[in-house]
């Protein structure tokens, strides 16, 4: 029995009693699935968003939120949203790269120096380019405002990571994505691709020694329980495209589509704010949970990627057009 956080399912969660006071079933019931904990801002804002959509459509559209990999890991959920078995799904632009390779470009190592650069790029030409690639290359579309995941940090249970040398021989998990694997190979490790759904147990059973994620995820998914060190590498920024299945969205009349679109984008803007603040404030909380936090030499990592010709390789793969759009925001990377 799957628990969702939609208002309607809460109303029926206590049993099968239907009373006159209960609202009629919605005309359009839509499923939104994701890989994060209920307590992550993504799910808090999604629950609010579902409520607002129900109210503004006068109960005609019900969005059911399935958090925490309840419907499967990312690879599985991606297959489900492609087929229309689920209607909406938030996925890292790098993992989306397993389907539409061009969307990996925003996860380029050390590309964005600040959130000002991130949002200028993603709300500007780079985001538009990526969304266009999604529409052209799949059964999916992406809503305009990408949701935040954040700058990623490395955790492990062996030693603090200060320079790329400290990574030597370490077994690290990365999400499924050619760019992620390539980047950590360039940094000197042989990474293992594992869906987020299996990361906690992979760390617990020492299938891998470490992983990398923003602090908000390390905290809300309790990875501190199975990790000793957290190294502030800021090695890439990551965001979640709010994806929809084109056909299933087109079943909605235009006025309802507009209400859903406005609310998804508005929730995304609030989620961005929450996530940035959380990622900035969590170091103390993680230390209190017993994890040792250290700073890392960002420049040493960037130089290591340059020396491994990582940027040259991906410039070639993405092509001049996409690369020039990226560097318009990030400055020269190689
Ligand atoms: O899989 C991860 O590490 C996560 C949760 O950050 C993503 O969705 C990319």
From TrEMBL:
Q: Which family does it belong to?
A: Belongs to the bacterial solute-binding protein 7 family.
What protein name does the entry list?
TRAP transporter substrate-binding protein
Q: Which organism is it from?
A: Herbaspirillum lusitanum
Query: Which residue positions does the secretion signal occupy?
Result: 1-23
Looking up PANTHER family in the UniProt record yields:
PTHR33376, SIALIC ACID-BINDING PERIPLASMIC PROTEIN SIAP
* InterPro entries, per database record: DctP_fam, TAT_signal, TAT_signal_bac_arc, TRAP_DctP, TRAP_DctP_sf
What are the entry keywords? Signal, Transport
PROSITE patterns cross-referenced by the UniProt entry: TAT
Compartmental location: Cell envelope
Highest taxon of the lineage: Bacteria
User: Where does it primarily localize?
Assistant: other
Q: What Pfam families does this protein's entry cite?
A: DctP
* Record flagged with keyword Membrane: no
């Amino acid at each position: 029995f799957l628990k969702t956080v939609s208002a309607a399912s809460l109303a029926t969660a206590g049993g099968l009693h239907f009373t006159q006071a209960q609202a009629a079933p919605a005309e359009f019931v839509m499923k939104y699935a994701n890989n994060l904990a209920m307590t992550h801002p993504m799910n808090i804002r999604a629950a609010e968003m579902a409520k607002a959509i129900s109210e503004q459509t006068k109960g005609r559209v019900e969005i059911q939120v399935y958090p925490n990999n309840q419907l499967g890991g990312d690879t599985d959920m991606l297959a489900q949203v492609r087929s229309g078995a689920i209607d909406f799904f938030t996925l890292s632009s790098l993992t989306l790269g397993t389907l539409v390779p061009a969307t990996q470009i925003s996860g380029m190592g050390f590309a964005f120096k600040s959130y000002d650069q991130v949002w200028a790029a993603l709300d500007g030409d780079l985001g538009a380019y990526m969304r266009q690639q999604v529409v052209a290359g799949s059964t999916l579309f992406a809503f305009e405002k990408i949701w935040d995941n954040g700058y990623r940090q490395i955790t492990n249970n062996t030693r603090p990571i200060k320079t790329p040398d400290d990574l030597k021989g370490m077994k690290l998990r990365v999400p499924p994505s050619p760019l992620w694997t390539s980047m950590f190979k360039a940094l000197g490790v042989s990474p293992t691709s594992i869906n987020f759904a299996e990361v906690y147990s992979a760390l617990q059973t020492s299938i891998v020694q470490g992983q990398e994620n923003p602090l908000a995820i390390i905290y809300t998914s309790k990875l501190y329980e199975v990790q000793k060190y957290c190294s502030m590498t800021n090695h890439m920024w990551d965001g979640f495209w709010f994806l929809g299945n084109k056909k299933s969205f087109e079943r909605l009349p235009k006025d309802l589509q507009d209400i859903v679109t406005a609310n998804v984008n508005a929730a995304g803007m609030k989620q961005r704010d929450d996530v940035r603040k959380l990622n900035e404030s969590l170091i103390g909380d993680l230390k209190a949970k017993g994890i040792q936090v250290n700073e890392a030499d960002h420049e040493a990592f960037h130089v290591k990627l340059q020396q491994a010709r990582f940027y040259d390789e991906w410039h070639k793969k993405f092509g001049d057009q996409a690369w020039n759009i990226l560097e318009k925001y990030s400055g020269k990377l190689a």
